[in-house]
TrEMBL record:
Subcellular location: Cytoplasm
Active site: S189, H216, D313
Gene name, Swiss-Prot/TrEMBL: cheB_3
KW NADP (keyword) present: no
One GO CC term, this protein: cytoplasm
Post-translational modification: Phosphorylated by CheA. Phosphorylation of the N-terminal regulatory domain activates the methylesterase activity.
Broad EC category: hydrolase
Residue stretches making up the CheB-type methylesterase domain: 177-372
Protein name: Protein-glutamate methylesterase/protein-glutamine glutaminase
Keyword annotations: Chemotaxis, Cytoplasm, Hydrolase, Phosphoprotein
Listed GO biological process terms: chemotaxis
Domains (record comment): Contains a C-terminal catalytic domain, and an N-terminal region which modulates catalytic activity.
Length: 372
């Protein structure tokens, strides 16, 4: 059975283009179109169960995307909303706000109609719909995307039993002293921007370690994400910059479109390398690259955190760290994940020490790292 999609955009051209893209895939069909948020709200209030996913612009007359998302929360309507947004500064800020309000994911809107008709844009739309409608077993696989099938025939009971057996318990707590070198390295993807709001703002300002974050996002969006998190957090948050010295009590978010690594300068100083280079598995930033860079450091304790996200980015890098370093791995649990992909893969690899619901992740990090 085809998945029903609601398209919301005030541009007739974009409605036609999006409809053509969606209807070109035999798994989806555009059930209805709306020219603004108010019209869409009427559709959703009348029969929101009719739609498996919603494609939405933000800037629209009568009721914009933000207002629509607020109304959906007010009416307790659970809809998988995918925002199609521009990469401009204003568009990035608006997208972060939409994700805060419950949007499932976003796709960057091309700057021109010619780009909008490109294969790349079509692939991104269909991929987001694939994940949102839980049809990953028939996922569109492209050279720019790495997907792990998160739909298996394994029963939940068997999965829990197997994972409990493989949970590792190798982490050795260092004797607490001023010279103990610690770092937290966190990775997330789909659902990550909203998830980070349940973690980062609750970290103490005097956390006894720096925090590195790889959130899969295009260039232009991560700075807005960092700025927003910094506004609501006790700890300092910023987008990572090339060459800067890493400091305890700071959170560094990898720059979208770039790779981020840690480089040892001396026994007490480390710097960030933020480089423009090819993606790995279609990802830049890529969490595996961040984790692998920690192999050449002498941190006494490395706390790895994996939150919601599609695919398995981070598992390979953590596996390499586990073989040579003193690490502790925290994974978000399935019920609180927007997409239970990345935490599932790292857990099934037997690398996880602790599984926590999203609201307990910051507590687990702070307890493990300590404060100054």
């Amino acid at each position: 059975m085809k998945k029903n999609i609601l398209v919301i955009d005030d541009s007739a051209l974009m409605r036609r283009l999006l409809s053509d893209i969606i209807n070109s895939d035999d798994r989806f069909v555009v059930e209805d179109v709306a020219t603004n948020g108010l019209e869409a709200l009427n559709f959703l209030v009348k029969d929101y169960g009719k739609y498996d996913a919603v494609i939405m612009d933000i800037n629209m007359p009568k009721m914009n995307g933000h207002e629509l998302l607020e109304q959906l929360q007010k009416h307790r309507i659970k809809a998988k909303v995918i925002v199609v947004s521009t990469v401009a500064k204003e568009g990035a800020i608006e997208t972060i706000r939409a994700l805060e309000l419950g949007a499932f994911d976003f796709v960057t809107k091309p700057c021109s109609f010619i780009d909008a008709k490109s294969e790349s844009f079509s692939e991104k739309i269909l991929l987001s719909l694939t994940v949102a409608t839980n049809t990953v077993n028939k996922a569109l696989i492209t050279k720019n995307t790495s997907i792990v099938n998160i739909n298996t025939n394994t029963t939940k009971e068997n999965l829990i039993t197997r994972n409990e057996i493989t949970l590792k318990k190798k982490f050795v707590k260092s004797v607490a002293n001023a010279s103990t070198k610690k770092i937290v390295a966190l990775a997330c993807s789909t659902g990550g921007p909203k998830a980070l709001q349940s973690v980062v703002p609750y970290l103490p300002a005097n956390l006894d370690a720096p925090v590195l974050i790889v959130q899969h996002m295009p260039e232009g969006f991560t700075n807005s994400l960092a700025t927003r998190l910094n506004e609501i957090s006790k700890i300092n948050v910023k987008e990572a910059e090339h060459g800067e010295i890493i400091k305890k009590g700071w959170v560094y978010i990898a720059k979208g479109g770039y790779q981020m690594r840690v480089k040892k300068l001396s026994s007490s100083e480390y710097q960030l390398l933020v480089t423009l280079e090819a993606p790995r598995n279609g990802l830049k930033p890529c969490a595996d690259i961040m984790y692998e860079s920690l192999l050449d450091t002498d941190y006494d304790e490395i706390t790895c955190v994996i939150l919601t996200g599609m695919g398995g980015d981070g598992t390979k890098g953590i596996k390499q760290l586990e073989e040579k370093k003193n690490i502790y791995v925290i994974a978000q649990d399935e019920p609180t994940c927007t997409v239970y992909g990345m935490p599932k893969v790292v857990k099934e690899a037997g690398l996880v020490d602790e599984v926590q619901p999203l609201t307990k992740v910051q507590e687990a990090i702070t307890k493990n790292v300590g404060v100054r």
